[in-house]
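Good morning C.,

I know you're traveling, so I'll keep this short. The sequence:
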Amino acid sequence: MLIFLLRKTLCALPSSVRDKKEKINMLKKKKALVTGSSRGIGKAIVEAFLKNGAEVWGLCSKPSAAKADLEKLAADNGVAFHEIYADVGNAEQVTEVVKAALAEAGTFDILVNNAGITRDGLSFRMKKEDWDDVLRINLTSVFLISQIVSSNMIRAKDKSCSIINMASIVGLHGQGGQVNYAASKGGIIAYTKALAKEVGSRGVRVNAIAPGFIETDMTAVLKDDMKAQWVEGLPLKRAGKPEDIANAALFLASDLSTYITGQVLGVDGGMGC
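The tokens, ready to paste straight into the viewer:
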């Protein structure tokens, strides 16, 4: 009987109402800063945010090939995309650029610390500069950028703000030949949990995403047989896509996750089981 009444009610509605598909903008009127925005996971996150109504500042080291497409995507969704440039490993430069972007935006509701590099090699052969570069870009930049943005976030009234840090399954379980990368991502996880305790009472959530094997430029250099071995060992039997990480970031950025902080969300196809 209930189903019959629902059908009758729907049929009674004008066709213009029945056929209208209301777009759900999960990040409507929110402003976001995403680092490492030019390609791969960062680009996918920017796209997801723009499609869901956010105005986005994308930070990368130089003008990207995706800039025009992202600007068009933003315009198609009634928002704006701003591409800004800095070497996140240069403390003075990135501080200046992020402060300028913050002044332009007024406030950021969302920060995604995604920029990162690898400099792989066995620990006993690793050059100190390769250790320093990875820690400076992957970890120290997260501290510097979060310090600037979170200081502003905690002053925002009646707002729920979100900081999302890109960790890695390697930061949880380690990986031979990546002691520098593992240390940087493990540091991000610890930093995420500590910062969550500092700023939670001020309406700021801080979480991390730990991707597994994702098809990006960073993993494209691996040999096909090695990729096949990785995939075969996964319960879901496929490599992840940047969009898989973007969907997780969208959830953590949105008001669907307002009671989640200090967590590490594994998006790894079961690799961490």
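Safe travels,
E.
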